[in-house]
């Protein structure tokens, strides 16, 4: 996924499924300058991490 798409998902009203290495995650914030996205595991906000946008995959 690219940074622009991560920003679109973050701003969307509907829930858009996103995976990180097969784990369902929520996008918390996007740093477009660095190409990084802060995510947390779905159902576990304490499990937060910052990853390159390219590691995220939109689930269709």
From TrEMBL:
<dbReference type="Pfam" id="PF08141">
    <property type="entry name" value="SspH"/>
</dbReference>
<dbReference type="GO" id="GO:0030436">
    <property type="term" value="P:asexual sporulation"/>
</dbReference>
<dbReference type="GO" id="GO:0042601">
    <property type="term" value="C:endospore-forming forespore"/>
</dbReference>
<dbReference type="GO" id="GO:0030435">
    <property type="term" value="P:sporulation resulting in formation of a cellular spore"/>
</dbReference>
<keyword id="KW-0749">Sporulation</keyword>
<protein>
    <submittedName>
        <fullName>Spore protein</fullName>
    </submittedName>
</protein>
<comment type="similarity">
    <text>Belongs to the SspH family.</text>
</comment>
<dbReference type="InterPro" id="IPR012610">
    <property type="entry name" value="SASP_SspH"/>
</dbReference>
């Amino acid at each position: 996924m690219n940074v622009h798409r991560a920003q679109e998902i973050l701003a969307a009203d509907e829930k858009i499924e996103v995976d990180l290495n097969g784990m369902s995650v929520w996008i918390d914030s996007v740093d477009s300058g660095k190409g990084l996205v802060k995510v947390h595991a779905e159902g576990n906000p304490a499990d937060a991490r910052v990853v390159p946008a390219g590691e995220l995959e939109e689930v269709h």
